[in-house]
Amino acid sequence: MRILVLNGPNLNLLGKREPEIYGTRSLWDLENDLQKAFPDVKLEFLQSNHEGALIDALNKCMDGMMAGVVINPGAYTHYSYAIRDAIAALKIPVIEVHISNIHAREEFRSKSVTSPVCRAVFAGAGLKGYELAIRFLTENK
Amino acid sequence: MRILVLNGPNLNLLGKREPEIYGTRSLWDLENDLQKAFPDVKLEFLQSNHEGALIDALNKCMDGMMAGVVINPGAYTHYSYAIRDAIAALKIPVIEVHISNIHAREEFRSKSVTSPVCRAVFAGAGLKGYELAIRFLTENK
Amino acid sequence: MRILVLNGPNLNLLGKREPEIYGTRSLWDLENDLQKAFPDVKLEFLQSNHEGALIDALNKCMDGMMAGVVINPGAYTHYSYAIRDAIAALKIPVIEVHISNIHAREEFRSKSVTSPVCRAVFAGAGLKGYELAIRFLTENK
Amino acid sequence: MRILVLNGPNLNLLGKREPEIYGTRSLWDLENDLQKAFPDVKLEFLQSNHEGALIDALNKCMDGMMAGVVINPGAYTHYSYAIRDAIAALKIPVIEVHISNIHAREEFRSKSVTSPVCRAVFAGAGLKGYELAIRFLTENK
Amino acid sequence: MRILVLNGPNLNLLGKREPEIYGTRSLWDLENDLQKAFPDVKLEFLQSNHEGALIDALNKCMDGMMAGVVINPGAYTHYSYAIRDAIAALKIPVIEVHISNIHAREEFRSKSVTSPVCRAVFAGAGLKGYELAIRFLTENK
Amino acid sequence: MRILVLNGPNLNLLGKREPEIYGTRSLWDLENDLQKAFPDVKLEFLQSNHEGALIDALNKCMDGMMAGVVINPGAYTHYSYAIRDAIAALKIPVIEVHISNIHAREEFRSKSVTSPVCRAVFAGAGLKGYELAIRFLTENK
Amino acid sequence: MRILVLNGPNLNLLGKREPEIYGTRSLWDLENDLQKAFPDVKLEFLQSNHEGALIDALNKCMDGMMAGVVINPGAYTHYSYAIRDAIAALKIPVIEVHISNIHAREEFRSKSVTSPVCRAVFAGAGLKGYELAIRFLTENK
Amino acid sequence: MRILVLNGPNLNLLGKREPEIYGTRSLWDLENDLQKAFPDVKLEFLQSNHEGALIDALNKCMDGMMAGVVINPGAYTHYSYAIRDAIAALKIPVIEVHISNIHAREEFRSKSVTSPVCRAVFAGAGLKGYELAIRFLTENK
Amino acid sequence: MRILVLNGPNLNLLGKREPEIYGTRSLWDLENDLQKAFPDVKLEFLQSNHEGALIDALNKCMDGMMAGVVINPGAYTHYSYAIRDAIAALKIPVIEVHISNIHAREEFRSKSVTSPVCRAVFAGAGLKGYELAIRFLTENK
Amino acid sequence: MRILVLNGPNLNLLGKREPEIYGTRSLWDLENDLQKAFPDVKLEFLQSNHEGALIDALNKCMDGMMAGVVINPGAYTHYSYAIRDAIAALKIPVIEVHISNIHAREEFRSKSVTSPVCRAVFAGAGLKGYELAIRFLTENK
Amino acid sequence: MRILVLNGPNLNLLGKREPEIYGTRSLWDLENDLQKAFPDVKLEFLQSNHEGALIDALNKCMDGMMAGVVINPGAYTHYSYAIRDAIAALKIPVIEVHISNIHAREEFRSKSVTSPVCRAVFAGAGLKGYELAIRFLTENK
Amino acid sequence: MRILVLNGPNLNLLGKREPEIYGTRSLWDLENDLQKAFPDVKLEFLQSNHEGALIDALNKCMDGMMAGVVINPGAYTHYSYAIRDAIAALKIPVIEVHISNIHAREEFRSKSVTSPVCRAVFAGAGLKGYELAIRFLTENK
């Protein structure tokens, strides 16, 4: 079973940026932790600041090789209708994850243009949110 | 460890109402499944159509006996500032759960007045969402 | 044939409150008049100021014993998405009635969150509106 | 007793257009049915796609010959302040009727500029709504 | 002279919740202090988290036994048109009190649906606000 | 010198409708009074409830025979972009007149879609407004 | 093959009004050019300033004789829900044409209430837009 | 008969500022012209850039010496609720005048907070507007 | 103990303007009554129609001589961010008072830009509101 | 004659994604068809999911080698002011094409930030829309 | 070369008010520093809390003696269309300066009604902003 | 001392695009001029049309080598919350520069999503704005 874990803009800064919100573990740490937690799942990781690169990655999932996608679109959550369209084009389940509770921050963060086309949305569970999302994809039948 | 699982209006209809959205298992089934899944946690369940009853239950958690709350406020999600205040008064973590992806339905469902004061929000994971919320409360340290 | 006639908050004041808008007959008078006008229909009446009590009553109709519901949600009309969900869960026809023409009063009264899930809406016909609603339920096939 | 029954734009298509919403009986059928149902009332019928023609007809009612008006302004409901003014100028009761429940359709249909100056509004009762409106005019004293 | 002092949702938490905003005295303390400050007035106290219970209490004032009402509707202030209607039905003066300055907090707290039908509104004077409200009712002729 | 005086929907009711707002003189009286007040100007009068007829009349002015237009578009003021386009197409000055002060009435009356393309707007001067408008057209050089 | 070409208010002024926007050819020229460009298609032309007349013409297409409609609703584009309903009632394809790019002009022109029920919308192609619309109707299978 | 002619901020620049909009005659010229045009009326003139000074002047009219006021509030038109209150306190008629057609300029200029409490509003008639306003005050009985 | 009592625009008209709203006592009466009611407090009074004069007075309070301010900003309440800034700069408590219940009047009066920076807001208590405000400042510790 | 045909995000999925909306022909098919239909025009094709790449391509057109551009900006239509600026910088005509009728879909799709700076907009004509756009560029003089 | 440096309401409090935002140097210090920094420029300084006084000062610049204006309108920035008009009337460049970054504070501060008519806007550069503004005026040719 | 000068989309067109707004000097000229003006500062320049590339560059500044950033985000100013997040993650001062006065152009340009997280914003000073921004970074201590 293969699952794509996509991280959007500025998530490469994990551990360095606003640790009181995002924690102190790096993206590298997160990815290692997740792979260890799911030894039977083949996780593929991609982080990019480029909207187009995220869309490219989602488009490639149309080849049917992935069983699901976990995506944290970062700030693109709030305006990227292009990423939304790329998600909507997929038939496999896509789970949107946010490390912080986006509803408890600036007004603009409470609007998500990608949520309506995702299967589920997990916000505020910290890095743990990624693990729960993968668990949902692997256990939900 | 004790956790309160609160369900709001119309969730007593689980299994009977719009099964294509909410599934076919009853609230009774859900509560049994959850207790079985977490044998070491003392789960307390309450469902009520009465906004005041939900607030009463949240107020009682101020006695410090509960380690956390999982709440699905049903339609009160969209306008009950009174439930919001009751959640905000608590120091223990409160997780908001929605069975369906509320962002993929009518416009009014995408506004939550309770989310900003919850620790995390899980939407769209079906009944599985309750399990993930309890897992988050028990495993997150 | 059984029909439930539900009245929401402050309708217990009928006859006492703003008689130039609501008339001088009491809720008791209204209920008696209606039962007399439809001797072959078993009318069940409930008035409550409690949103939860109205939802409880609507939920009970899922047992299939009622042929229809006539509801005047009073001020809950304007914000109770919880009542809306309770109506939407029913398969029997629900008719929304307002004694006064809600469109001719304060701005906020012209917004109804329950109307979209009712079968029909009658506003401004005074107490006569209840009678017309029951007539519609009994004669419409 | 004379009552004017006014139908606005596209209601000449009754029976031909979207029968799942508007039914299969023609405007001609409707008018015949209504006259038969009220043998003691002199009903006058007018249908026009022209906003001005509807206003002309309403203006003529200022001669005091009509006891009331039943009007389905069709789509003019949503923007014709000119028809609204014509209704407001009348001293006899005007009942607004909509065949479908306009609150359960596109957003723009839930705004009525004519409702605030009508005596009552009946929506969603199908063709039966016209009958109930006439009944209200004839029985209400 | 009898005056009803009504407190809405979460005000039972006075002294326990956010003491930097609401102070450290309990609701019980407040009620005792008020009765002592006005020995010649018969104060009746009610606190409830239930919207319907607050409406019931307001409805009872229509019996003419109360000379006035002091109400802190808590979060219901911001959306309960049902409480608004119950206040509007009364002929005796109703004073709305808020412990904190609701205009200095979250955006949603600056909108009150009950204020337009109250006689006066006092916000931000702490527990002292209740005393001033009762003073206004007793001294204003 | 020729001037067209156009009156829109329901202005045929002048003298009969809401005399406290519109006065007691009829449209016929108004037209006679105006012609007498300006014996050297050839006034042409048209009143119609039909939006199209008003546009037809404005279109005809493109023949260059008229020196100006005085128009009271009635309720079309608030939504007829078609009349607006017809006015904008003219090179001669067009004066918009309203008998009552439209800013002192319902909210919707304070929005005019035709005003931006008129030369001047006179509101609230009663029937006198027509006279002032013609005076402006004849004296302004 | 028969196609109806409908032009709305003020389009009779083509060639005379704002030639920098609408060009110098008259409506008559346009209609002749179009018929010459499509010798095998029977084009029927109608221009009217009357909303009702445009609706009448659209209603007549329900007789099944037309293969399609090309409509430039002029300013009615921005508010005529009645024309929208008339278009929606048709089963044949309707193409909306605007001579100028309505998105590059006043704000109000960028809102079209008729576009959602048309098959396609062509704006900004000048008189050429009509030709492309007919081509689309004749070549698209 | 005495009439106060009030001019607000920047109208002292008349003749110097944007002559294509405001013309080339100075405020001094305007005041002289007006007095000459109405030899039998005692006109009193005041121009001030100070909102408070305009309010002071309006307040003084409560002494009953003035028969009416002509006011061009300049940009205060768009936000000075304080001037609005000062006008509303007067029992004599107040006419609002604007030299240019404020509806044909920037969006913010089409909102007037003073118009609802004036008797009439004349906009776009150039300096002539002042003369028409005085004429209205002197001739209207 | 010194307290500044500031009154904004048009409050010099007290007793003369709309006595059904503002009562019949003059500003002079009010100031005398207040001083008599608080013989041990040195009250300083200022009324001005000039926004700048009110700001000047507030700025002077930065010298630390005043123990508090009672301000009725009149219509400046609704838009004067400059007065808001002047209040926010003070460290002493400022109480905002309105004679009428501003929430029960025109829509625009329910928005206060000064309230968020005041300590408390009293509205609707008539002239009594000033007394209660001073009482609050003198008794609150 | 050279024309650039630009396709934005997710249009590489043509034929694979939602065929009931976008048809079954691939982007490759479309490009071949277009080149065949215009043998005398040199068409250059580019598709990219990267906003920046689309801007780069538009910027290159400033070298004067292209006679026009046909662009389907995909979802960037709704928010890319950067692409808008790139189009506005060009002096050659740019035609915006949408395969589906964007006005008949989700609300957000009816807002285009690029349309105001394009010469023309064709929406809803399917793949045929590209052909009509090229035809317009080659035949329009 | 002469330049006017205008400061609006509450800027007389510089150094005393919220030093963490506005710094600890007084307005007097600022003015001295600026004159020293530009020994060859004749700087004229004015601070006023009175909107009218600021307009008066701007109006005087129409005499052509000033080469430019640096203005910090304080809170008038957000609503004074009267100051906006006074700036727009000038032909010399006007630079708007804000000590703090107004976009990083309360929502209402991010709206400036004066910016659209200024040549440039500098915000957030502290007192240094005034120096940069003068430098721009003196060095920009 | 090192400073990064970032230019966003379409700024590579400087000198070629709308010279009346942006001047005639190229980006190359600008960069040379700036380096010459600050010989003691090491300026690093980057221009990109790619949102992701701008974020990459900002992310790299977290290595602590830069003393500050001058950024002109071009049209990304108006919607790129991703660039906003990248700026907010930095501890060094970031100055936002716009060549033109963005408040004096289209409505959408007056909204900046990046300004709230920048230290200062300079708009409308032409190319000179970059110089002033660097001067601010080098002189401000």
What key phrases describe this protein's structure?
homododecamer; 141 residues; alpha/beta; Rossmann fold; 5-stranded parallel β-sheet; 5 helices; globular
What this model shows, in words?
The longest helix of chain A has 12 residues, at 128-139. The first copy, chain A, has helices spanning 19-22, 27-37, 51-60, 81-88, 128-139; strands spanning 2-7, 42-47, 68-72, 94-98, 120-123. Chain A has 141 residues and is of the alpha/beta class. Helix content of chain A is 32%, strand content 18%. Chain A has one domain: 3-Layer(aba) Sandwich (Rossmann fold), CATH 3.40.50. The first copy, chain A, starts with a strand and ends with a helix. Chain A has a 5-stranded parallel β-sheet, sandwiched between helices. At the D-G interface, helix 3 of D face helix 3 and helix 4 of G. Strand 5 (120-123) of chain K pairs antiparallel with strand 5 of chain L, so a sheet runs across the interface.
